[in-house]
Each structure stands twice: as structure tokens, then as C-alpha cells.
């Protein structure tokens, strides 16, 4: 069972009950009354007052950290107002407007709550009981309890809380056509209220100046009578069928018969500590009536029966549906769905691309391995290509050389050897052959080196007699060097036409042309011999 502290702040004292509250009832462990020091001003020093209250509770060994507070009727204004017959959700704004019209103080200085009363059948209006208290008093209570280390969960009004006790009486009538008078006494202050059904429909208080009990009772009866005579609206004096004096027999034993004689309704004394659902585990105070509202506020936390007043959570218009928020939520959901859809699509596309990249990387790796294995072969092929590119095309060179050869009846080649160049030495052609005369061999060498394209240079030549061929008795040899800037020569592979005649490209030497140069001298020597 959770611990709960009920507090009522009077002008010069604080009443309290330390209890345990459960859905089945209230177990009271301690009742106390704390006199506020005259030097302590609750209004100007709420923090200091909270520290004082905290120390007092510690001395009483009160362990509760949560509390419900009750405000005395004397600081509240209760006003009955007839309202148009409007739905309950429209009442708070309409009540606030009417309260602002009838209040002597601005509403921003007041804490307001109201009790909607049952509507009479066939009536075009409905009644409410508006209650207001100074907002400053509410702020003081909150500051004091916070300084005392307490969390206040509710701040109610004493006559409404006391109605919880009366509603739990076995003799209470649930007939909404009749009402019950409820009277509590707080020292010189007497609170008078009328309950109809589960609602407080009327509330009033009066101060009794008579110090003695014999003088106080007539004053109380007179105050009750005046209140009954002035009843209008939701209930009249004729509809009050019962009266409850909340307190002990010692407090109201003499008042009950006198009140019943004056007002005629049945009057009963109801001890709040003997109410159904209340268990007491402490010594009871003498002024039990002053604790009626505290007991009722604890019972309201267990199983509430009376319509409540709570200045911390007053009745407000129901929160209208926020369509903008709904649209924002829908938009957010749609955007989230689109984001998920787009994200999912991108996810699958990215996965597909990643798979493609992985496959391409695998292919690249395979090709790289294949290329790596083929690198030695490629290097050999490249070397071969380089070697081939650097070689002389000797077949083409043979065709070029053919342009310089004389007719075969004067000289012929027995052997032609093509030699590659080495180092800085150019390629060369070694020629061995026979000629009819020595001058024919000499003239052949000159023809070759003196040709207009200057393709060859004569490196060395030599002639000597030879008897192998009587018709060509001179043997000769020569070496031709291929010039570096000689133009490239290509073999002609096109076949000649059938009707064309192929002519030799070898230039012919006129038979009657006299030899010149060394050949002429050699011929002269041969003739002389």
C-alpha cells in the first residue's frame, strides 16, 4: 500500500493525516495538527515554511513523499451559474467566460474548477457550481510542499472532499431528487454544503464568534437556516431530506437534536474515522470534524464517489484532434515507405552492381593470370619482331641489285652472299663471278657505285685470271656496302598481263662503247701482250 499524506493549510495551523491508501480502503497511521509559528509567514517565506514543515514531519516520523492538499472553504468563492444546454466538451470554455464576467478579480489571478450538475428533465439550461481560489495560495502550497520534499498530486476544496465521507454512509440516499445537508466544523469556522446525488450543489461557510458550546450551537443553527432559506437553482430547502454532522458525538451531541427540531429533516452524526473503508491505527484527535475533508481526500484516492474538484488538473475542453499532426504523421509514414522502397531498390541495384563488379574482378584476375603466364612468350615474340624489323629485306634488295647487272654474256655472278650489319658496320653484299674480260668486272663495279640513287658503296674488289671457264677467263669478287639512307625497296608481286612483254630491268651496255677508266687501260695492256 503506498504511503500518502493528506494536508490542509489553515491560516495559523496545518492539519495532516499520514495513511496508506489502496483500492480497498484507507489505513490511517497518524493524525497531527501543527501550529505555524507567528514569526513564519507562509506567503512571503514559502521556502522557510517548507523547511519547517519538513522538520516537523521528520519529528513525527512521517515517511510519505506524496501528498494531497485541501484548501479551506473560507479562501474560495463558490458560485452557482445557469448555463445554456451545451455538450460537456463545450462547458469549460463557456464556464471560463461566465466566471470572467462575474469575478471581481482577473481570471489570471485565480485558479478555477467547476462541478457540472445534473440536468433537470425538460429544462433548457444546465447548472454548474464554479469554484475559484487565489492562484497565489495555490503557488504557496506548491512551493512549501516542494521545499518540504513532498510531491503534491492534487489540490482540492474541503466541502467537496468532506462529501466523500457523507456519500459512504449506509443511510445516504442515492435519489437525485433529494439532497443531503453536510456540516463540518473547523474551530470557529463552520462549513455548510448540500450534496445531491454525487455532486456538491451548494457550499457556504460562516465564522462563529461565541467561544462556548452553548452559545455556538444557536449561531450554527441560524447560519444553516439562513443558507437553507436562500437556496435556489438546482435544489430548494424542501428537497433537503437529510442532514449529516461530520464529527464525533462529543462535538455535535447537543447540536443534532436542536438542528433536527429547527429544520425537520433527520439529522445524524457521522464520525469520519468510522466511515466504511477507513481503518485507524492511531489515537484519534478530539476535533474529528476538522479532519473530515482530509479523510475524504484520502478516500477519493481509493474509490472516489463524489464529483471532484482539483485545481492542479481542472476540467478542460477535450483536446481536439490535430489533423495537421495526423497529416504530418501520414506524410512521414509515406515518406518512410518511399524511402524504404527507394532504398530497397537501390540496395538490390547496388547488390547487382557489386556482383557484376565481383565477376569483372574475377575475369580480370583470370586474364591477368593468363597474361602473366604469356609474358615470357610475348617477350620472345617482341624480341623476334624487333629482330625482324631490324633485318634487311634481302629479297627486295636482290630486285634492286638486278638493275645494275650487265648482260650475262659479258659477266655473271657465281655466288651472291648477303651479310647483316654488325655494330656500326652497315649490311654488305659479297659478289663472286666470272667475266669475259677484266674490264667487264671493273666496269660492273663502277656501274653499281656510280648509279644515280647511290644505293651502294664499293668496299673492295679484285680480279684474277681463271681457267675454269674458257669463255669467261676472269674471276672477280667485290663487296658492296648498303648506304644507311638508301630508300626501302619492295618486291613487286603483281603478275604481268598476258599480252604484255616483260623487259629486263638490267641496263644494257652498248657493245661498241669504248671502255673508259681502268677497264680501257687493262684492255690496252691485254692487246699489247
UniProtKB/TrEMBL annotation:
Chain spans, region Disordered: 491-529
InterPro entries documented for this protein: ATPase_NBD, FtsA/MreB, PilM
Keyword terms, alphabetized: Membrane, Transmembrane, Transmembrane helix
Transmembrane segments: 328-348
Keyword Transport: no
Biased composition (Basic and acidic residues): 520-529
Domain of life assignment: Bacteria
PANTHER family in UniProt: CELL DIVISION PROTEIN FTSA-RELATED (PTHR32432), ETHANOLAMINE UTILIZATION PROTEIN EUTJ (PTHR32432:SF3)
Record's protein name: Competence protein A
Species of the source: Symmachiella dynata
Amino acid at each position: 500500500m503506498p504511503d500518502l499524506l493528506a494536508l490542509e493549510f489553515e491560516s495559523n495551523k496545518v492539519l495532516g493525516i499520514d495513511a496508506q491508501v489502496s483500492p480497498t480502503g484507507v489505513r490511517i497511521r497518524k493524525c497531527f495538527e501543527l501550529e505555524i509559528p507567528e514569526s513564519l509567514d507562509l506567503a512571503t517565506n514559502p521556502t522557510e515554511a517548507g523547511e519547517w514543515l519538513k522538520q516537523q514531519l521528520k519529528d513525527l516520523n512521517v515517511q510519505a513523499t506524496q501528498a494531497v492538499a485541501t484548501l479551506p472553504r473560507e479562501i474560495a468563492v463558490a458560485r452557482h451559474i445557469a448555463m445554456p444546454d451545451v455538450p460537456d466538451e463545450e462547458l469549460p470554455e463557456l464556464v471560463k467566460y461566465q466566471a470572467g464576467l462575474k469575478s471581481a478579480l482577473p481570471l489570471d489571478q485565480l485558479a478555477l474548477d467547476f462541478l457540472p450538475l445534473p440536468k433537470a428533465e425538460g429544462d433548457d439550461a444546465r447548472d454548474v457550481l464554479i469554484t475559484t481560489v487565489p492562484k497565489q495560495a495555490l503557488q504557496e502550497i506548491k512551493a512549501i510542499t516542494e521545499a518540504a520534499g513532498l510531491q503534491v498530486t492534487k489540490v482540492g476544496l474541503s466541502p467537496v472532499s468532506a462529501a466523500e465521507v457523507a456519500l459512504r454512509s449506509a443511510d445516504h440516499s442515492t435519489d437525485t431528487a433529494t439532497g443531503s445537508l453536510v456540516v463540518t466544523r473547523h474551530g470557529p469556522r463552520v462549513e455548510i454544503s448540500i450534496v445531491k446525488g454525487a455532486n456538491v450543489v451548494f457550499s457556504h461557510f460562516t465564522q462563529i464568534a461565541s467561544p462556548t458550546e452553548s452559545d455556538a450551537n444557536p449561531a450554527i443553527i441560524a447560519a444553516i437556516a439562513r443558507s437553507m432559506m436562500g437556496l435556489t437553482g438546482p435544489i430548494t430547502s424542501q428537497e433537503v431530506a437529510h442532514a449529516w454532522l461530520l464529527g464525533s458525538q462529543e462535538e455535535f451531541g447537543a447540536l443534532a437534536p436542536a438542528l433536527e427540531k429547527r429544520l425537520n429533516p433527520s439529522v445524524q452524526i457521522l464520525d469520519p474515522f468510522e466511515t466504511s473503508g477507513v481503518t485507524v491505527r492511531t489515537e484519534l484527535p478530539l476535533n474529528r470534524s476538522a479532519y473530515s475533508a482530509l479523510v475524504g481526500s484520502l478516500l477519493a484516492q481509493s474509490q472516489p464517489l463524489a464529483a471532484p474538484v482539483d485545481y492542479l488538473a481542472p476540467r478542460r475542453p477535450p483536446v481536439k484532434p490535430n489533423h495537421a499532426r495526423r497529416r504530418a504523421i501520414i506524410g512521414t509514414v509515406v515518406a518512410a515507405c518511399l524511402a524504404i522502397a527507394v532504398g530497397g531498390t537501390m540496395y538490390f541495384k547496388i547488390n547487382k552492381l557489386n556482383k557484376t563488379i565481383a565477376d569483372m574482378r574475377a575475369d580480370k584476375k583470370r586474364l591477368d593470370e593468363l597474361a602473366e603466364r604469356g609474358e615470357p612468350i610475348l617477350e620472345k615474340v617482341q624480341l623476334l619482331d624487333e629482330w625482324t624489323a631490324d633485318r634487311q629485306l634481302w629479297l627486295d634488295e636482290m630486285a634492286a641489285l638486278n638493275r645494275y647487272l650487265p648482260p650475262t654474256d659479258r659477266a655473271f655472278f657465281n655466288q651472291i652472299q648477303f651479310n647483316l650489319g654488325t655494330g656500326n658496320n652497315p649490311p654488305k653484299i659479297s659478289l663472286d663471278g666470272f667475266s669475259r674480260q677484266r674490264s667487264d668486272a671493273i666496269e660492273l663495279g663502277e656501274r653499281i657505285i656510280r648509279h644515280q640513287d647511290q644505293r651502294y658503296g664499293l668496299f673492295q674488289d679484285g680480279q684474277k685470271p681463271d681457267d675454269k671457264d674458257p669463255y669467261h677467263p676472269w674471276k672477280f669478287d667485290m663487296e658492296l656496302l648498303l648506304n644507311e639512307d638508301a630508300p626501302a625497296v619492295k618486291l613487286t608481286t603483281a603478275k604481268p598481263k598476258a599480252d604484255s612483254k616483260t623487259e629486263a630491268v638490267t641496263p644494257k651496255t652498248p657493245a661498241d662503247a669504248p671502255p673508259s677508266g681502268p677497264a680501257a687501260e687493262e684492255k690496252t695492256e691485254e692487246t699489247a701482250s
